[in-house]
Amino acid sequence: MEYALHEVYDEGRHLSTAIQRALRHHHADAETTALVRHRMMQAVRYGDIRAGVNGDLDGVHDPQRLVMTDALRQRLSPTELWCYDGPTFVRVNLLKTTVEDALEALAPFRPVFIENVCIRLDAPYGLYRSQAYTLGWVEQQDINSQRASRMVDARPGLRVIDACAGTGGKTMYMSMVMGQKGRIISMDVVPSKLQELRERAQRIGTSIVETRLVDSTKVVKRLYDSADRVLIDAPCTGTGVVRRNPDMLHRIDTTAIAELHVKQQDISHRAIRMTKPGGQWTYIVCSVLPEEGPTMVRWLLEREPASELIEERQWTIGEDDGDAFYAAVVRRSTATTVSVTKSGDA
Questions:
Q1: Which three-class secondary structure state does DSSP give residue 226?
Q2: Residue 270 in contact with residue 302, Cβ under 8 Å?
Q3: CATH topology of domain 88-140
């Protein structure tokens, strides 16, 4: 554990990757996996590798002791909820099964039905090796991420663009509710993420997803005014998922926040233009920082003055045991038509 944790601190390795590395060496059962994961999380939360590995931080839930950059401490007021590991939620894939059958298949993981297609697993270790997962019956997705995905209002027959798809969690949700009718174009700048997205799409049994690598601005321009729905799951600080990624509290400084702010503006401003006049775009971030959520949406609306804010929602950390997300849905003006040769888009 200590070696893997030093990689987090000294080399900037993500904590989730370090945990996977440590567990490979332990050949752990469920109980050992839970203990190793918790102790590594505690070591990073409180900035003490030795104490975390030795178990001296077991049972400590003190928000004042959390290690954070000055930039985040000036903006955020952590609560005791930040000091607990987040629970595991899965989404039932209705393309392949029912909620009832999924609950039965997940019985070894102590499933608790929450709402809609959302199930909490109180003993989640080994999920990815289970038949329910490998057959594509369930996908891991936080409860509030599922709720934010619903706000996109993807419907059968629509053309939908996931502008920052990553590995496709929200793409998979939308493909399910569209019931194999319509088209989803999932875009990202990282080829490996799109490859994982394609593998997930095959596993869950959807055939309406197309991936596109954004390797130039032309890829986006070709899709201007073309989509009924556009999802902008913008890159952000991740301050809404600190229970799962406490290492980000060490890394997000003033420079990182400023760089992300510029990236959010640029990506969102371009992505909006892929929405048809009269269509809807949805902006989502897993953040609790106002400048990444409502303030960013107001900035975007100033540049689309005839568009209409339909709905917005901020979920807080721990709300229904879930992570924090901000989501806003905007209907684009029917009078809006964008020229792909507009100045400043080169």
A1: coil
A2: no
A3: Alpha-Beta Plaits (3.30.70)
Strands ordered across the beta sheet of 227-233: 209-213, 183-188, 159-162, 227-233, 275-285, 325-331, 308-315
- 0.90 exceeded by pTM: yes
Residues 141, 91 contacting (CB under 8 angstroms): yes
Q: Indicate the domain borders of the chain.
A: 2-60, 88-140, 143-331
CATH dotted code for 143-331: 3.40.50.150
Residue whose C-alpha is closest to residue 21's, from 9, 39, 3, 35? 3
Q: Which residue has the higher pLDDT, 335 or 130?
A: 130
| Residue percentage of the chain with pLDDT more than 90 | 82
Q: At residue 330, does pLDDT exceed 80?
A: yes
What confidence tens digit (pLDDT) does each residue in 63-107 have?
999 999 999 999 999 999 999 999 999 999 999 999 999 999 999
What is the SS3 assignment for 172? helix
Average pLDDT, the chain: 92
